[in-house]
Specification:
This protein is α/β, with parallel strands linked by helices and 498 residues long. Helix content is 38%, strand content 11%. Helix 2 packs across helix 3. The longest helix has 22 residues. The radius of gyration is 30 Å and the shape is elongated.
């Protein structure tokens, strides 16, 4: 919870040329800065150099990020307000890159105390006693981030800390800070602490954060510790949480210096950029298929059948792309097996032992599986119960038709409609190989121009060409220029208008 470093990830090793003692640190001209001063200084440096200030954040350049930058420059703690899947946590974690890569600390300090600014009486005594000979350590910025997902069972002890009865039994007094077992917030001193889904935190627990945000001290079981914590506190929340699961108490909202509203990608290009960046694709997914999925996600988000209060996460489109890629990989795997090798139905299957295996390339027909596998990511209006897959299938067809018109508008596709003008049928489907599909189509006037419009290049592979052909056939069907039927075996047959 407290750190984002993976359990098996090796901790960064400080460079050998960093000062090793307090005296060497002073001699190097190091100056103490608060976390907020550090963030401001490094943000301004990136602005002046033109360096990317928030790597990996897509679609917020002209809206959210300017507000975040103003909050950082003002030194304001902030709350990010937005529906699920809008990248709030990703944005919060990106703030860590604005910290200094290495910062000096007192070795063994659970509060990450700065050698030039010790907090506890024990640390101040240690610095006074050892002086310039005091050994110091260095903390990487990745270890200066704490995070807690707010849940109703979160306690004050988890966040702030509690009295350690064992230390009391050892003879220490209750007023001694050494008797405290510190929680996540003070352990992230001199760093960034994030509370995700803040309204889910019980109101009496939210009260414990009031002093942290304003007075910058903490209270444990009625004992007030005068520890001037150095923190940048940021929280995330869903707007509906103010009235549904819980709310952010008014005094706490008042203590946040900035409230920043996030949003979903405002246009199609940004939606596509997000999918390209985030999706872990196990097969090639052509651009026109990605565009269908991006339009599909936006259509679901805007549909009156979907509850707008819950939102449709950006993870929906990302998972859709990954599912479509997996369908293509499954097809390639099955066609390479005993039942599909050599490529079933290909002209050379009878005698050519060197038939190339099917490469995994997604087709628009692979998107059909998305409607059932991803319906759990969408909250429908109560009146749509039982019709979820039907609604999603309709929106997917609409997204495919929009992409067809956007990509192939004005192109002469009469060669495709001419194929079926005299009763010919073209069969495709999840387990129809590219060789089989292309054999049925043969040489079609206008195919090369269609593939070029779809961005498949001058020399597409058979799998890429098959993906383009299937998209054209489906688009012609959706624009009422071809008929379509689905067989009992699940294959799709395109023919004359029915």
């Amino acid at each position: 919870m407290g750190r984002v470093t993976a359990p098996n990830q090796a901790l960064p090793v400080p460079p050998a040329d960093l000062p090793g003692t307090l005296g060497a640190l002073r001699a190097a001209g190091h100056r103490y800065q608060t976390v907020k001063q550090e963030l401001r200084h490094n943000l301004l440096a990136r602005m002046r150099s033109g360096e990317d200030r928030f790597p990996g954040i897509v679609g917020y350049d002209d809206s959210v990020l300017p507000e975040v930058e103003r909050a950082l420059l003002a030194g304001h703690d902030m709350v990010l307000l937005g529906e699920r899947g809008q990248g709030k946590t990703r944005l919060i974690r990106a703030l860590v890159t604005l910290l200094d890569e290495w910062t000096p600390v007192l070795p063994g300090s659970v509060l990450n105390e700065h050698p030039l600014h010790p907090l506890t009486p024990a640390s101040r005594a240690l610095v006074a006693e050892a002086g310039d000979d005091l050994p110091i350590g260095w903390l990487h910025r990745s270890m200066r981030y704490g995070e807690k997902l707010a849940t109703p069972d979160t306690s004050v002890g988890d966040l702030i800390g509690d009295v350690d009865p064992i230390r009391i039994a050892q003879g220490r007094t209750l007023g001694d800070p050494e008797t405290i077992h510190f929680g996540l917030v003070p352990r992230t001193n001199r760093g960034i602490f994030a509370v995700n889904e803040l309204p889910d935190l019980a109101e009496r627990i939210q009260v414990a954060l009031l002093n942290v945000l304003e007075e910058r001290d903490i209270q444990v079981r009625g004992y007030q510790l005068r520890l001037p914590l150095d923190l940048f506190l940021v929280a995330s929340a869903n707007p509906e949480d103010y009235t549904n699961r819980g709310r952010i108490i008014t005094p706490l909202k008042d203590r946040f210096g900035a409230e920043v509203r996030t949003h979903y990608p405002v246009d199609l290009e940004l939606e596509l950029a997000l999918i390209r960046q985030e999706a872990d694709l196990v097969a090639e997914v052509p651009e026109h298929v990605l565009e269908v999925l991006a339009r599909f996600a936006r259509a679901v988000r805007e549909s009156p059948s979907v509850d707008p209060r819950s939102g449709v996460s950006a993870r929906f489109a990302i998972a859709a792309a990954e599912t479509v890629a997996a369908a293509a990989l499954r097809r390639a795997g099955l066609l390479a097996g005993p039942a599909g090798s050599p490529a079933a139905g290909s002209a050379s299957a009878a005698g050519d032992a060197t038939v190339r295996p099917e490469s995994p390339v997604a087709r628009v027909g692979d998107a059909v599986s998305v409607t059932s596998t991803l319906r759990g990511k969408v909250e429908f209006e109560s009146g749509e119960e039982g019709r979820e897959i039907e609604v999603l299938a309709h929106l997917l067809r609409a997204a495919t038709a929009e992409t067809f018109r956007a990509r192939l508008a004005g192109l002469d596709l009469s060669g495709f409609t001419g194929l079926v003008a005299e009763g010919a049928m073209i069969e495709t489907g999840e387990l129809v190989s590219s060789a089989e599909l292309l054999r049925q189509v043969g040489t079609v006037p206008g195919l090369a121009k269609a593939l070029d419009r779809l961005g498949l290049g001058d020399a597409p592979t058979p799998e890429q060409a098959a993906a383009g052909v299937e998209f054209v056939l489906e688009g012609l069907h959706l624009t009422r220029r071809l008929g379509k039927d689905v067989t009992d075996s699940g294959r799709t047959v395109y023919g004359g208008r029915s």
